[in-house]
Automatic annotation (TrEMBL):
Pfam families found in the cross-reference section: Ank (PF00023), Ank_2 (PF12796)
Name of the protein described by the UniProt record: Uncharacterized protein
PROSITE patterns attached to this UniProt entry: ANK_REP_REGION (PS50297), ANK_REPEAT (PS50088)
PANTHER family: ANKYRIN REPEAT-CONTAINING (PTHR24123), PROTEIN HOS4 (PTHR24123:SF33)
Taxonomic superkingdom: Eukaryota
Length: 1097
């Protein structure tokens, strides 16, 4: 009432806060914004940020990284409800229904215990979310009332599905009661509409296109006009129109979406449901898929234990009758294991590989797969996606599980849906992560191409006749003179088709009647290649008996023998024996011989056979990798023993200087390291970077391998401890120190182990080194101490330790500069407390505030502590200038509010506005103009900010318009060189700027001090698109500059063939400049041959 009576006052107060930017904008639940509107929301957030408003945005972790990048800041994780918070909240909630508080407390304790016991390892923090604690309370109101009478928690066994289902059903009842008299049909439509709204919120328009939700909602509204009103009465859905519907929490929409998928994978919406289900394998759809899996697996204890990540329960149930259970989608529990494993990122960065391999090896799901005996594994297809567990692992990016399954399954059991192999990142990821078994199967299936196309329209073609297995018709076609070597429209000759379809009788008929036995298809493969790829021993024997050329290579330079290794289908060793006449030294596109491939894939029996057939044991690829290198690196102990028994060089080196011992140490294969050492492998040898086996074992953190190498008297050099300080656990480092390693030894960079531990942020190791006498002020070759590196890498706990551990710790002179640039405000405050000089300048004249020009928080701390806001570096640049140059709009705004000089000038007489325009910082330019920056100031070249804006290709048309709106005469304003904005836009290739300036009637014939027009400049630069625009706006084609050059001469002189070609239609080809040279003569003089030929023609 107060506000309504004083509406004018309220508006006035609000406007005051608005103008002063003293409004806090809370955007709650960013993750709940529909996918279609998320980009719009991001643009709105960027606008708020640019406008200087303080924002608080909440989201679930899935979109945390997106927002951090968008706002150039770090997110704070909100603490969940503790058990104490939950108890307090629930006691208050239920006390409204009871007079005796002790009964309420007993019920709440029982309810929370039940939640902890029933909800799985990932959901047991369910009640840590306040809204979900409320959901639990509302579902259990009636149970609480019964508890007051019976003193027993009747429904103590519940799961996530029960809670959501009960909550939604309860809200549905409430909505119907509020609405009054309502038919069953309307209740049914109400539930369907609510689900459609949920689907629309969770999935994109493109995903839902076939479902035609909008038209179905329209029909529902025409039948029940009050539908929207009814839906909003349940308290779950909020909205004013059908286009503006949201849920009070995203999880309710996700539950309904998951429920819809489960109900529709077997009805008329089956295809759409399957399509949406595949989408749920993306990381931000985990809740939807979790609900879907729970519903389908509700009667399968082992499946549910997998979904719940209850590893002990899974382990116990594997040996029970539930091992063979199938859920409602005919999925065995392996399907679930495969889809809930560790999700690999789409693109793997090189520096992330070490940590990624570690995390994937610790995946709980892969531990379960390792426990299952190989003969019990079932790679059957489900009835939903018609996919195997291997498929599920590939779709969900659980590549470690896919690889292990391929490794454990027999070849005849492996079946992969070829469509799942089309993801371009799959093969690179397999290579990077060393998933060789999966890699082989992917290569195999891509090669086979199960979608074998037969031309069904041409029923008289040999391919079609062969596909039908009609021997009589084939003989008839041959007798009538059919061309046995004619390829079909898919590039496959009849012989290949017969082989691929595994029809040996037809293969024999074709060969006996003159089919070319060595004919190749579009991939360069013969029929023998395909028989091997399919693992068909009988056809392979048949083809060899017809003396087919076994040395033919395909487009990947692979013989049939190569494919017998790669494909590893049935009868591998028998097929290899059949191909024994192959040249064993032929290398494929990747420089691999059949022996090297067999060693890489771990086929010991095959390697033995090849060696018996006479293959040299020390064959090498381009990197000088031998079979022994591959076996040692990949952990194949039996193969290592075999190769050494056959005379393999134990100390052979690759081009990088790596021996088998170094490679096995690097991968942590302690059993192989032990064997190689017992066979007298050289423990002291180093690779090309001077790193020994012990170094790589230390870097990998493999304690057992380290111990083996030390016991063999491996050389304990300085870089060993330096590597250990970054990668190895404390116990191993202590073990290394016990062998007498010098704590203050240095590596080639002059860094001590303390440097590296500080750099890596390993507080416990830093503490250990200091206790062992490490020099706290030691300097590396760059003059930097361990404290510097801890500051540089923003490890504040290590910084605190180094500063408090010793009174002798010296603050590096540039420590505050480094912290301002790379660190955070807490680190800056700590260093200032320890005596860092706030206005100290480095060799470039930069203070810490200069270095904080891209971080508003750091700048704020420094200014609060007395930093000089007008301090200038060696180029006379203030912090404001650098913030402008970097495009740090929030820092620019902050510095201006703190009183920074808006018109400060650099050594080149550039103001902040000129710098902003020069660097194409559109948002900052707009901000500076809004703050009153002078737009007519000129720099040392006589250019204003507008001149630079016209020149820069990143300048937006809006920025150009802004300048012209402030001063229309800018349109023809000249620089010291008489360049107009149009000439500068032409120089810079700014297409949008040229168009806009011409639309404002800029003088197209204006000349600079050299008599050059915009047309001359685009001809010199080769900007054909701008040339077109200028000529379309009647630019004079034959105008000459001070040197007498036309546009054609300029283009020819600079070798721009496309521009010359464009001008030739109308330009005077014989025009001469002041030196009497034509366009042709300039092109000849400057050796622009293509232009010369064009002009001569």
């Amino acid at each position: 009432g107060e506000c309504k009576n004083n509406l004018f006052l309220v508006k006035a107060v609000f406007m005051r806060f608005y103008q002063e930017k003293e409004i806090v904008v809370l955007l709650d639940g960013f993750d709940e914004i529909p996918i279609n509107y998320q980009n719009d929301a991001k643009q709105f957030i960027k606008f708020l940020k640019r406008s200087g408003y303080f924002m608080l945005i909440t989201t679930r972790p899935v979109l945390k990284n997106d927002l951090e990048l968008l706002l150039d800041t770090f997110a704070i994780d909100l603490s969940p409800f503790t058990r104490k918070d939950q108890t307090y909240f629930l006691n208050n909630y239920f006390s409204k229904f009871a007079e005796i508080s002790s009964k309420t407390e007993i019920f709440v304790e029982s309810l929370l215990n039940a939640a902890q016991n029933n909800l799985n390892d990932r959901d047991n923090e369910f009640t840590g979310v306040p809204l979900q604690t409320l959901l639990l309370a509302e579902v259990y109101i009636e149970d609480f009332k019964r508890f007051l009478e019976t003193k027993t928690l009747i429904n103590g066994n519940f799961d996530l599905l029960y809670l959501y289902r009960s909550f939604i059903e309860k809200k549905t009842l409430i909505a119907c009661e509020k609405f009054g008299d309502i038919s069953e049909d309307m209740i049914y439509q109400y539930k369907i509409c609510k689900t459609f709204f949920a689907l629309r919120l969770v999935f994109s328009e493109e995903d839902l296109d076939e479902l035609e939700i909008d038209s179905k909602l329209k029909v529902a509204k025409s039948v029940f006009p009050s539908m929207l009103e009814l839906i909003q009465k349940d308290g779950i859905v909020v909205g004013e129109t059908e286009a503006n519907i949201r849920f009070i929490h995203q999880t309710f929409a996700e539950y309904l979406a998951g429920e819809w998928l489960a109900e529709n994978v077997k009805n008329e919406n089956e295809e759409v449901a399957k399509k949406l289900l595949k989408v749920t394998f993306l990381p931000n759809f985990k809740v939807v898929r979790n609900i879907f899996d729970r519903i389908l697996a509700r009667n399968c204890p082992l499946h549910l234990a997998v979904i719940n990540f209850q590893m002990e329960k899974v382990t116990s149930l594997i040996d029970s009758s539930h091992f063979n259970d199938l859920d409602d989608g005919s999925r065995n529990f392996l399907h679930l294991i495969a889809s809930w494993g560790f999700q690999h990122p789409k693109r793997i960065k090189k520096h992330e590989l070490f940590e990624l391999k570690k995390v994937s090896n610790e995946d709980k799901m892969i531990e379960i797969v390792r426990l299952i005996p190989d003969d019990k594994l079932q790679n059957s297809k489900d009835h939903i996606l018609e996919s195997t567990p291997v498929d599920y692992a590939i779709i969900s990016k659980s590549l470690n599980i896919a690889n292990l399954l391929c490794q454990k399954l027999k070849n005849s059991q492996i079946c992969i849906n070829v469509h799942n192999l089309l993801e371009p990142s799959l093969l690179p990821s397999c290579e990077q992560m060393n998933y060789l078994s999966l890699y082989r199967e992917v290569i195999n299936y891509v090669n086979i191409d199960p979608n074998l196309f037969i031309d069904k329209e041409d029923r008289d073609s040999l391919s079609f006749i062969i596909s039908r297995g009609n021997v009589i018709k084939l003989n008839s076609a041959i007798s009538k003179g059919a061309n046995l070597n004619e390829r079909d429209k898919f590039g496959s000759p009849p012989l290949h088709t017969a082989v691929k379809l595994q029809k040996p009788e037809m293969v024999r008929i074709l060969l006996e009647n003159g089919a070319h036995k060595n004919i190749t298809d579009n991939d360069g493969r013969t029929a023998l290649h395909w028989s091997v790829i399919h693992g068909n021993l009988n056809i392979s024997k048949l083809l060899v008996s017809y003396e087919i050329d076994v040395n033919v290579v395909d487009l990947h330079k692979r013989t049939a023998l190569h494919h017998s290794i790669i494909s590893c289908r049935q009868h591998q060793t028998e097929i290899v024996s059949e191909l024994s006449n192959t040249d064993f030294n032929l290398r494929d596109f990747y420089h691999m011989t059949p022996l090297l491939l067999a060693a890489d894939y771990g086929y010991t029996e095959c390697v033995n056979l090849l060696l018996e057939l006479g293959v040299a044991v020390d064959q090498k690829n381009k990197s000088k990798m031998t079979a022994l290198h591959y076996a040692a690196s990949n952990g194949y102990i039996d193969m290592v023993k075999l190769l050494l028994s056959k005379g393999a060089d134990i100390n052979s080196k690759t081009t990088n200087g790596a021996t088998p011992l170094i490679l096995s140490s690097r991968q942590g294969h302690s059993n192989i390291v032990s064997f190689l050492l017992n066979q007298n492998a050289d423990v002291q040898t180093k690779d090309s970077r001077g790193r020994s086996a012990l170094y790589w074992a230390t870097r990998g953190g493999n304690k057992e391998t380290i111990t083996l190498l030390i016991n063999k008297e491996a050389n304990l050099k300085a870089n060993i401890l330096c590597a250990a300080s970054q990668y190895t656990d404390k116990n191993t480092i202590e073990s290394l120190l016990s062998h007498g390693l010098d704590i203050n030894s240095t590596d080639k960079e002059g860094k001590t182990p303390l440097h590296w531990a500080s750099f890596s942020g390993r507080k416990d190791i830093v503490k250990l080194f200091l206790s062992k006498g490490a020099k706290i002020n030691a300097e590396d070759k760059g003059g930097n101490t361990p404290l510097y590196w801890a500051i540089r890498t923003n490890h504040i706990q290590v910084v605190k330790l180094l500063l408090t551990q010793s009174k002798q710790t010296k603050l590096p002179n540039n420590c505050l500069h480094v912290a301002a640039k790379y660190g955070n405000k807490d680190l800056i405050s700590l260093l200032l407390l320890k005596g860092a000089q706030i206005n100290l300048k480095d060799s470039h004249g930069m203070t810490a505030l200069h270095h904080a020009a891209n971080n508003a928080d750091n700048a704020a701390v420094l200014l609060a502590k007395g930093a000089d806001i007008e301090s200038k570096n060696n180029k006379n640049q203030t912090p404001l200038i650098l913030a402008v140059e970097n495009g740090s709009e929030d820092v620019v705004d902050f510095l201006l509010k703190e009183g920074a000089n808006l018109e400060t000038k650099t050594s080149d007489n550039e103001t902040p506005l000129i710098v902003s325009a020069k660097h194409g910082q559109n948002d900052v330019t707009c901000l500076l103009i809004s703050k009153g920056a002078k737009i007519r100031t000129k720099d040392h070249e006589g250019k204003t900010a507008f001149h630079w804006a016209a020149l820069n290709t990143y300048t937006t048309p809006e920025t150009i318009e802004l300048f012209l709106s402030k001063s229309p005469d800018f349109l023809e304003l000249q620089t010291a060189k008489q360049e107009t904005p149009l000439i500068l836009a032409a120089q810079g290739g700014s297409l949008d700027a040229v168009r806009l300036l011409l639309s404002k009637n800029a003088n197209i014939e204006a000349k600079d001090c050299n008599g050059m027009t915009a047309l001359h400049w685009v001809s010199i630069k080769g900007y054909q698109h701008i040339l077109c625009i200028l000529l379309n706006n009647d630019a004079e084609l034959e105008v000459k500059d001070n040197e007498g050059r036309t546009a054609l001469i300029c283009a020819a002189q600079n070798g721009h063939k496309s521009v010359v070609n464009f001008l030739l239609d109308e330009a005077d080809i014989n025009a001469k400049d002041k030196n009497g040279l034509t366009a042709l003569e300039w092109a000849e003089k400057n050796h622009h041959d293509s232009v010369v030929w064009l002009l001569r023609d």
